[in-house]
Specification:
This protein is α/β, with parallel strands linked by helices. The chain has nine helices and eight strands. An eight-stranded parallel β-sheet has the order 1-2-3-4-5-6-7-8. Strand 1, helix 1 and strand 2 form a beta-alpha-beta unit. It is globular.
Amino acid sequence: MKLADSHCHLNYKGVAEASPDILARARSTGVVAMLNISTRESEWDAVVGTAEREADVWATVGIHPHEADDHPHVDTARLIAAAAHPRVVGIGESGLDYYYDHSDRGAQQRSFRAHLAACRDTGLPIVVHTRDAEDDTAAILRDELGKGAFPGVLHCFTGSAALARIALDLGFYISISGIVTFKSAQDLQAVARDLPLDRLLIETDAPFLAPVPHRGKPGEPAFVADTCRFLAQLRGEAPEALADATRENFHRLFSKTLA
């Protein structure tokens, strides 16, 4: 199989120190593309630096909703400037997280809109984080898309079938993480089973959410193969076919990877 891990954090503590071994294991498992996601401005140089050194790794620039309170200065113009780097292929992760509320909800919404405006200006896709905020996420996406089109993905999807349908109707992709392999994830499995193949991505969100049979371990990009095999069985598809489709979808969405 040739796989794309559409969302990982290679510069997080515990991962960065073991990066050569982690990348080697990913490549030996068939991972040929990895998207290294930033969550705060202080990470941008390291995240982009990894993508500069590794030909099969690309980067995003963005502010996670947890960090919105600490980044009021990261506006649309700042995001656009950072996204001009040739190895930056997406903007985010950004969005809304009302489960933890680590940042004021108004600050999260303002930051999210700034990211979406940057996507509209650059044409780069938005990487959306949403948790316990489906209505506001959908409303903001609809409103901002009404000002001009931009592509995007709902990453690490754990939402409702209704949110999945809204995202698909808006032209977005949906990315499935190792959570789908958990015994408790029956609702997610039901949604993932019916997602159209041409809108599906897979990810690890490493170092988080290691799939079965690696639960309890730090996640790493190599584990996307386990998620792929589980999801393929769930959907009645060949793992190789699912790997090919999700990898092609990754490059279609993050089209700057083909430059």
